[in-house]
Amino acid sequence: MQNASMELLWQSSHISGGNADYVEALYEAYLDDPQAVPDEWRSYFDTLPRVSDAVPSDTPHSPIREHFAQLAKQPVKGNGVVNNQVSDHERKQVRVIQLVSAYRQRGHQEALLDPLGLWQRSRVPDLELQYHQLSESDFDTVFQTGSMYIGRDQATLREIYDSLRQTYCRSIGAEFMHIVDTRERAWIQQRMESVRSKPVYELDVRKHLLERLTAAEGLEKSLGSKYPGTKRFGLEGGESLIPMLDAMIQRVGGFGAKEVVIGMAHRGRLNVLINILGKNPTELFDEFEGKAKYEGSADVKYHQGFSSNVMTSGGEVHLAMAFNPSHLEIVSPVVEGSVRARQDRREDTTGNTVVPIVMHGDAAFAGQGVVMETFQMSQTRAYKTGGTIHIVINNQVGFTTSLQEDARSTEYCTDVAKMVQAPIFHVNGDDPEAVLFVSQLAADYRNEFKKDVVIDLMCYRRRGHNEADEPSGTQPLMYKQIGKQKTTRTLYVDRLLEEGAIDKTLADQMADEYRQMLDDGKHVAKSLVTEPNKAMFVDWTPYLGHAWDVASDTRIEAKELTAIADGINSVPADFALQRQVQKLYQDRKEMALGEQPVNWGFAETLAYGSLLKSGYQVRITGQDVGRGTFSHRHAVLHSQTDASRYVPLQNLAGAQADFDIYDSLLSEEAVLAFEYGYSTTQPKALVIWEAQFGDFANGAQVVIDQFISSGELKWGRLCGLTMLLPHGYEGQGPEHSSARLERFMQLCAEHNIQVCVPSTPAQVFHMLRRQALRPLRRPLVVMSPKSLLRHKEAVSSMEELSNGQFQNVIDETDALDKSEVTRLIICSGKVYYDLRDARREHGKNSIAIVRLEQVYPFPYEDLRNVIAQYPNLKKVVWCQEEPRNQGAWYNTRHRLSRVIRSFKPEKNLLLGFVGRDPSASPAAGYMALHNEQLQTFIKQALKL
């Protein structure tokens, strides 16, 4: 504003009148952050009196109220005119400012977003002139435009009002005023208001837009005619998704991105595969006709992934669509993990080179908690990826019958995104140019601010939930309108014809050419690179085709191990350690010298150090992994003087791979899914997720069932993820005893996962090294200990670490005469030490105890070789801590029986079970009951 006008405005009675609340709100914002208000208001507030010694946030409002009151009573200096005589225009000036603010805040609530025109939206008084004490009689009055990006400092109210309506109430509804960062809000305002949310596109751009719509519609028509009634989850009604993705990929490629990872649900997946990623239509037709060849059990068409390269103005870009199951939103954190792995491989800490684009369904986006978890991860150190572009394919109806009042409690399905202050752009899918604009806007925002952004693509589902569904039974009015609705392409063709931009011959020619390319089996994706740069791919060939028991030498030279130990135990002299941690590191120094036996925490960190020195990245996440839930790891040290951190494993002498360790947010599902995605993209890394307690894995069961245990068989997707699940009955009650070993055992088949229960530090050392060093890439599930972390007998020597190997089965270690052994107990985990203590106490030397350290894949030959050393066995007993209906028993007894039956019939060995009685609860809730149960089955096992 001009200085004279400003002076009049500041000294007007409206400041202490009807606008007092408005100005006071501005003042409140100014006190919190002076940069959050316009320059003119900030300059004025800077001159106001303050209460001395008060911090800005505590400054009372009484000075400003008093100042306004005094100003209202005074005449304007220099002209002798009383304030009240000049206040009408100035009062309206502030009302105009309020009007602008209202449209930025709530204009989206009157936007024309529903392509079907069925929405019944409530009246928004804030957007009416009368609410702001303005009227059409003021339309020709000139006002200051303030922060509006209208192209000039002054405009009539008519121009201001029309500009606001065009910008915020047409085909795009923007929600961004919840963002606290002033620069971000101003950036969005400038981008939208400067073109009224409707830029003028060149004819070539519009033709390309039409061509992409023609491709989207053409594929669905072709599939519908060739395979009527076959489920394909088509894109009819949402065809604008194809030009949207096309525009985004070209945009981020122009910014320098080298990879785009795409996650999406069923709907439109086949269309994206063909028209964006360039899958050959012939391959898709073969899948429909049952001609495709699969390895493993495979999966349905609309779960499949794909990868290809396309050319953009910024060079070649690799596209990867993630595989995903029917649990729709779970793919989101998997994509984020894959993106982070790619960024780490490129040493990209800002997210410039790899961009995630994730598509969602409206009901799933609003309804599934993993969406919130993934948003919450977006700016954390362990999981940030430089911002994700989210696209909600909004069908305006849930699975089949859901109404809005049943599907969510919020106005929009996208409201959850506000928790991370992500801007949300709602757009009418039947306005392709508006779709193109928000696509470019979202890509630009992500590039500028490296934060998540959401596009709510308002469309509809022409065929119902799938092509076999009859939706009118539950949505009669919606599908009555859909039956009359012209397709998006038809509407756009009509628009272009009306404007004289094209003739009908060109539109028909596009459709004919696309149909012919499909029939000829040609690639139909624009910009597809037919001979891609293979350097952009990860080479998985070294990890293919290996048996589960492929050999690996996990030994390490003693001198090298000692050097690694020195590095792990070295802490800067001026780094103030907490007393207990200092003692732990002193003990580790003595362990390295052989003066103390090696405990669990030291063996584990030595395993990581040895892999880092061999060039293998190590990544560990989970709740409290830095120190370890049971304070055994302390891989991240915290200075007691300034709270700075030091990570010895990141500071080993000489060259080493990256060691990343992060305490995660309090999430299991999204975090485990993220680590799964990471490990499927980075083969030369030991990727570990540790549950705070083993039962916490319950919260991530979807990831375990649908990805970890079955991903390789369904999709051919290799994964070397390691899960550390603290497991063991310590009397801590039912919620913290069991990692639910039985659930993992039930999932075991076709050598899909490894399940281990190590009982010594040497075992965990060699198990972790084996997981990384051998070329097999299969998930490893570890029933990790709790009390064994400090058990005086659960120790190893440096020699066992340097010169040993992982043993699937550990034979009896006490000096027993094997010819006198008549009873053999086979067990896993902590219960071994309880059994051995009791046997020693009672001198039961006719009983041997054997540890099964890998329960799956089952080590038949190893166990048989151990049992064969006991010639006079009469009975073999499986003993476990868990109740009979839990643990490994039900899914292991047939394997144990197979080994026992392999001996000559004259042995006549019997197999028995010892453990807790069947129970619906994992464990006892009282220590006394826990101990009673323990003593009972120990006595049974040892025949006491």
TrEMBL record:
Catalysed reaction, written as an equation: N(6)-[(R)-lipoyl]-L-lysyl-[protein] + 2-oxoglutarate + H(+) = N(6)-[(R)-S(8)-succinyldihydrolipoyl]-L-lysyl-[protein] + CO2
GO molecular function list: oxoglutarate dehydrogenase (succinyl-transferring) activity; thiamine pyrophosphate binding
Keywords: Glycolysis, Oxidoreductase, Thiamine pyrophosphate
Residue intervals of the Transketolase-like pyrimidine-binding domain: 598-791
One term under GO cellular component: oxoglutarate dehydrogenase complex
E.C. designation(s): 1.2.4.2
Cofactor(s) recorded in Swiss-Prot or TrEMBL: thiamine diphosphate
Function description: E1 component of the 2-oxoglutarate dehydrogenase (OGDH) complex which catalyzes the decarboxylation of 2-oxoglutarate, the first step in the conversion of 2-oxoglutarate to succinyl-CoA and CO(2).
PANTHER family recorded: 2-OXOADIPATE DEHYDROGENASE COMPLEX COMPONENT E1, 2-OXOGLUTARATE DEHYDROGENASE
Protein name: 2-oxoglutarate dehydrogenase E1 component
Species this chain originates from: Spongiibacter pelagi
Lineage: Bacteria, Pseudomonadati, Pseudomonadota, Gammaproteobacteria, Cellvibrionales
